[in-house]
Amino acid sequence: MSRRFPRGLAKRHAVAIAAYLSVLVLTAIALSNPLQACALLLLAIAALWSAGRMREGWPYARTALFIGGVLAVVNPLLVPSGVTTLWRMEFGPLTLSITLQGIVYGITTALRLGAVIMSFALLYLVLEAGDQLALLSRLSFRVGLVLSLALRLLPVLSHDARRVSDAQRARGIELDAGPRRKRVAARAPLLAALLSRSLERAMDVAASMESRGFGARGRSRWSHGRPWRAADVVVAVSALIAAAALVGGLIAGAFSYTFYPLFDDPLAGMTSIWWAILVTALLVPLVWTCSWPRSQN
Q1: Residues 99-129 pLDDT 10s
Q2: How many angstroms from the chain centroid is the CA of residue 223?
Q3: Which of 40, 26, 82 is nearest to 258 (CA)?
Q4: Nearest-CA neighbor of 242 among 49, 104, 105, 39?
């Protein structure tokens, strides 16, 4: 991740960021109105831009474009439901039919998927790896510990693999010549060496953790969390309000939308009070965090 000065949501507390993006993901999954799906996608892109992570988020955007494009094209071909037929052709016993409802449903699915992918991109790009593991450890300490150790030891294992490979090449062993079967056979001793080193390192890590009191009764660790500031509270409260509006709208049926056999009017859902509260609660953190003085962060 870039080490530039954090902007937008990247400046906020990890818990507030996770709460906000979780609501954004759930909203994109739950709402099926095409205009609302488009608004949520634009909101996720705006959050990515305000955090200064547009360049890093481009690979995720390409993935969303590819998968969404496939869904937008395939769905009208495979789901001929709908009464507004735009094109119809018979291939013997088979009939291929494309309807306006199928096209709208495919495009809406692509928009919803794009919003979900970009929200997860935000979660990965805005939250530091340490913050992600810290949040996970609050849910399951053992899972967080295992993932933390794995992320720490994988680069070490890769470094060991390079060192052992260089040592074998220095002894005249050809690792990259010949057919694939020969190259795989030549690297078999490398796996044995890596396994041995991994077991030795695991014993060292276990002994180090035990010497530091891991697993003992009482407090065996100390951590100083990032303090909560006013802007962090705004993001967290906005996420709670958005979540409440989402649940209330779903219960009241304000977010229901039907595509088949005729799709509903998408403008009707945009005038709902539940949608107004939801989108306002999601917009406030972006405006607030962008305008919050840097000295306060």
Answers
A1: 888 889 999 999 999 999 998 888 888 877 6
A2: 27
A3: 82
A4: 39
